[in-house]
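Example 9 (inverse folding). The structure is encoded as follows.
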């Protein structure tokens, strides 16, 4: 055809066929690897999304427990404030009564008021 012998043309044809086969095989292999890589990336993304969802769930739990602790703290502070007001009131009432003379002993009512105030202070200090 171009002045080549059949042997030369067969060798050239075989070389072209081999080159085409190599190129096709390379393309198919590369495509296969890119599909496998895309699958791996999709699996990694799904795992990351699951991990993020689990972390968000744990964070919600932490925030919920913090809000509960804050409410309990506020309640405790309010109880302490109420107890302190009671102690102040009892102490003021105990000291506003007629002062005792130096040589006199306190009566039972005064002793009870002072004892109650001291007990309230002790219970507020040691919950």
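The amino acid assigned to each position is listed next.
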């Amino acid at each position: 055809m171009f002045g080549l012998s059949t042997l030369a043309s067969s060798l050239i044809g075989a070389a072209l066929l081999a080159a085409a086969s190599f190129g096709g095989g390379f393309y198919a292999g590369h495509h296969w690897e890119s599909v496998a890589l895309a699958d791996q990336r999709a699996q990694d993304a799904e795992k990351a999304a699951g991990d993020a969802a689990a972390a968000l769930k744990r964070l919600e739990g932490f925030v919920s427990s913090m809000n509960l602790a804050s409410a309990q703290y506020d309640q405790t502070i309010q109880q302490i404030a109420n107890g302190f007001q009671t102690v102040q009131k009892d102490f003021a009432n105990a000291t506003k009564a007629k002062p005792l003379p130096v040589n006199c002993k306190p009566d039972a009512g005064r002793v009870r008021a002072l004892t109650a105030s001291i007990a309230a202070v002790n219970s507020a200090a040691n919950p």
